[in-house]
Amino acid sequence: MSRRLSPLAVYNFLPKKNCNDCGVPTCLAFAVKLIEGTVELDACPHLTDQQKYEIEQLVLPPVRKVIFGRRKTVTVGGERVLHRHELRLHNPTAIALDLDDEEQDQVIETRLQSINNFRIERAGQTLGIDAVAVLSTSKSPDRFRKVVKTVSETSNLPLVLCSLSPEVLEAGLEEVKDDRPILYSATAETLQRFIELSKEFKCPICLTSKDLAELRALARKAMNEGVIILLAPITPATNLHEALLKLATIRRAAIEHKYQELGHPIIAFPISESYSKEERWRDSVVASMLMMRYADILVTHSLEMPLLLPVFTLRQAIYSDPRYPASVKTGLYTYGTPNSESPVLLTTNFALTYYLVSGDLSAAKIDCFLLVPDTQGMSVLNAVVGRQLTSEAVEDLIHQTQIEEKVTHRKLIIPGLAARLRGDIEDATDWQVIVGPEESSEIGSFLKKTGWTA
Amino acid sequence: MVEDLYRLLRPKLELPSIRYPGRISIARLGATSQERGTRKRSAEIGGDIDFPFFTLEGPAALRPAVAMEVFDKPLGIPILVRESLGSATEDPVEWAKKCARECPINAIALRLVSSDPGLDDTSSEECARLVKLLLEEVDLPLIIFGSGNDQKDPAVLEKVAKAAEHERILLSAATLKNDYERIAYAALRYNHLVLSRTECDPPSQRILNDHLLELGLSSNQIVMDPTTAALGYGVEYSISIMEQLRLDALKGDKSVQMPIAAITSYTWNAREAWSEDEKLGPIKVRGPLWETHTAISLFLAGAGLFIMLHPDSVKQFTKILSEIFPKNTQTRQDG
Fold first, then answer.
1. With contacts defined as CB-CB under 8 Å, which chain B residues touch A351?
2. Are A376 and A348 in contact (CB under 8 A)?
């Protein structure tokens, strides 16, 4: 129900020269992009400070952006909508791993190595851990200082320094003076000290309160002081029901009701208080739920691949841009261990089509090659009608991928929905075209039924 | 200073209340003896006035219902599921009984795989006999899937509907490509519900629902299946389509005010759910968790009926649901 800002309202403050100095052909188009958050206001060199101020008031995202870290930086927040289909979600939830300062030095170093080396390869992206959250379990400023020093020497990742005590945090901060860590977390009692630390070390602070009205008051105070803040409305002890309710309430208040005090990124800790091996799946599921319901930073504990992989995968999914058809890389993909006699199939680079075909080929355990032409993210039927999938495209791809050197036969299986391209492809290449099923789930039985032989 | 401000502001955060004009209808699966059925209890889904956790009254109007899938022929069952359930997967009735006994579920979903003309082409009569047997052997509400064959399904579902008269089973599925009229009439005549299935396309969903409504089905007799894509294989499409349908429904679009089903068993096609690749971590943890993640993301997007496959996924998902819905029953919290 949020009222969308009209581009014309922003346009009124722009120079209206259509000079293209910002890289966008017209001022109106620039206004649209400002509202979407896809260009920065500074891109326009012709604005007075007053105009800038007016526009900022209009286009500032209802959830403020927070950037932390130095050698590596992470941006969180900057969100404008509650549901991705309304525009898109901008800055993916940062996934931070906790590091307990009470652990022995050796354990800490090993864990840091594991955090640094953790990698997930998925859909053409290489993903890693985004940040390290150092927890002052020992409550000792000296110990905290030492561990923070170790972390900053071992890792480039941005930090979240966690303690309720300003003294402990200050000890740690002195080791990472210019690194812009996040301080977690201020309460009503300590806010004043945190504000001072934030000003001295130029770092964002988190605000904690169980009560949303108090949280709002704390935020107002910090904002008046010009401090950059994040909200920490829940702790690991908060029950899941209450946690999700609070996060949804805060985000809705920020986006739909324009409560500026609640328009800041949210940090959450999906870590079970009692960590038993049988229940370890729970942290993973809770992390995903908190992410879906607007947590901008998740501090979690387990580095186990099967627990993190689904969380990273879901993040990749919900932060993809729904306005453009998702596409995969053009080229040749292999399944199983194909040889020179294995079937060669064709699909499109529309992500959903590709993933379905890919999943079905894998599920059917077929050893084969899959040709993926650039259909500009169109599905098979649309690409045939829209002429993104043509015999020329197929011919080019056959050459580019050098598939003719990989197989001895010249038989191409095309999607049933692309049947009409059969003749054209046969004319353009010296390949024989076999029209496959319309549904990729039937490829397995299709190959069996037709008794694939090269 | 902060205390002063806090006192100046109201002590409790009061948000302007958002009351959408629309409300999701309630579909009741399974009829008890009160309605001339034989189910021990019904499963109610829907009733929402907002997205989960968006109202302060509760996470959702009703706790989602969870069904488990059984196949009439042990074909294409993921290895992990077979390992978990053992020999029970060889017989649909044993499979269903085991699920009902060991998992906290609200319904059984029977998939008549073998009725596919390309497979055994099991006759509609034979399918109906199996449904009848299942009704005698388990007391949970039933969801009956055809094989997905557009020509055969309506005939199969019609016979099944007749054999299960008054039981309020969910006939799955009416699509724009099959003879949905025949399925709708069977539901009307024998007192059942219809799953309205479209492929990732809200406008088609609206059209199909409208057709079903025009044929005389009430909104309470329809459950939508706007396609479940697995985590990592397009789940974001399912999430956005469900959120879009839900938002339209809340804003008053009566064509899409039905509860939504998520068929997370499709998750098992995802490579991550079955691949032995050790780089991805032990499959025994990864597989079920993949289905659980798909389920929880679609729950938050608004789905109210979950048709699942792996017992561990069901246990994980229902454990989370129990945490969120403190009352363990499917009680309605009116808004």
1. 234
2. no
CB contact under 8 A, A306 and B239: no
Interval B7-22 mean pLDDT: 73
Q: How many residues does chain A have?
A: 454
How far from B325 is each of A24, B16, B315, CA to CA, in Å? 50, 25, 15
Q: What count of other Cβ atoms lies within 10 Å of the Cβ of residue A153? A: 10
Cβ atoms within 10 Å, residue B75: 12
Q: Is the CB of B282 less than 8 angstroms away from the CB of A306?
A: yes
State pLDDT tens for residues B78-123: 999 999 999 999 999 999 999 999 999 999 999 999 999 989 999 9
Phi and psi, residue A183, nearest 5°:
-100, 125
Same fold, A7-59 and A331-450: no
Class for the domain spanning A331-450: alpha beta
Token reading at A78: 């900057």
Q: Which residues of B touch A213 (CB under 8 A)?
A: 6, 9-13
Please report the number of interchain residue pairs, chain A to chain B, with beta-carbon separation below 8 angstroms. 179
pLDDT band at B19 (very low <50, low <70, confident <90, very high): confident
Q: Are A264 and A295 in contact (CB under 8 A)?
A: no
CA distance A141 to chain B (A): 27
Whether A217 sits inside 8 A of B9 (CB atoms) is: yes
CATH architecture of A65-318: Alpha-Beta Barrel (3.20)
Ordered alpha helix ranges (H), A364-390:
380-385
Neighboring chain A residues of B275 at a CB cutoff of 8 Å: 362
The C-alpha atoms of residue A287 and residue A187 are separated, in whole angstroms, by 24
CATH code of the domain covering residue B315: 3.20.20.20
A209 pLDDT tier (thresholds 50, 70, 90):
very high
For residue B333, the chain A residues in CB contact (below 8 A) are none
Q: Is the pLDDT reported for residue B7 higher than 60?
A: no
Q: Hey, what CATH topology would domain A7-59 get?
A: 3-methyladenine DNA Glycosylase II; Chain A, domain 3 (1.10.15)
Mean predicted confidence (pLDDT) in A247-274: 91
SS3 assignment, position B12: coil
Of all residues in chain B, the one with the smallest CA distance to A278 is B285
Percent of chain A with pLDDT over 90: 73
Residue of B nearest to A316 (CA): B232
pTM attached to this predicted model: 0.87
Domain boundaries, chain A: 7-59, 65-318, 331-450
